[in-house]
Structure prediction request, 304 residues.
Amino acid sequence: MDLENTKAQMRKGILEYCILSVLSKNSCYASDIIRELKEAKVIVVEGTLYPLLTRQKNSGLLSYRWEESQQGPPRKYYELTPEGKTYLEDLDKSWDELVESVNLIRSK
Amino acid sequence: MKITVSINLGGYSFNIDEDAYSELKLYLKSLELHLAAEESSSEILSDIEARMAELFRSRLTLYKQVISMTDVKEVITIMGNPEDFSDGESTSRKAKFYTPGPHRMYRDPDHRIIGGVCSGMGAYWDIEPWIIRVIMVALIFAGGLGLLIYLILYIVLPEAKTTAQKIEMKGEPVNINNIKESVKKEFDTVRKNMNL
Prediction:
């Protein structure tokens, strides 16, 4: 068993959930999402984010709009679709359940 | 003194050292390859390019206007290796993509005389394109059949545009090492042409 690998696997599992959670507060563009994920230390290399974002967009959880920016080319702002909101609510529930289960096992 | 190249990355224009440019191009190529199995891979790529452009912009000042090798290496470290991106979902698809290299006929734009049909056939069967050209010309003079064949093939065969397609054309397995080699070859040709 490789500790680093196990840690990476754990992070990957919750990354998708974290992206949706970040976007549940307000619409963001990719660099905002990255900043939040980095602060929370759930992402190590930035490249991981982009395939996930596009995958979530393609499956209808996210939508985006182009917004002008003063510093350069227009930026892509992502937001949750109604479908994404229900999806996130489900994930919230199962996250709570998971935490509970793990705590239960650890406290025994 | 160093030669710089002017590039457009994510809608920004940059001046970049030649060696840094080839490093960056190599990185983007290997990303392209890794994401090839992904749906909307070009969209992911342009998002990544936009982010890299932003990171480069933050490294430039009034007194530092050219992107150097160090900048490229730093930004690549931030973005990560394409191997690190893939999660469980895409590994199975990637495995399918990697095993044995598909072999398809394309038109070869790099060695073409007219439309790249003969050079493409040559690359596919691994024979000198001039042999096919001679046969084609002979068929054209012998009743014009060659012209018809050429036209049909020109329409039917797609052009090998991406590095992955160029490797497929020769029937070599598409993997990072092959891509790297092809890209290096491309650079050498460009360099030679510049020296002429």
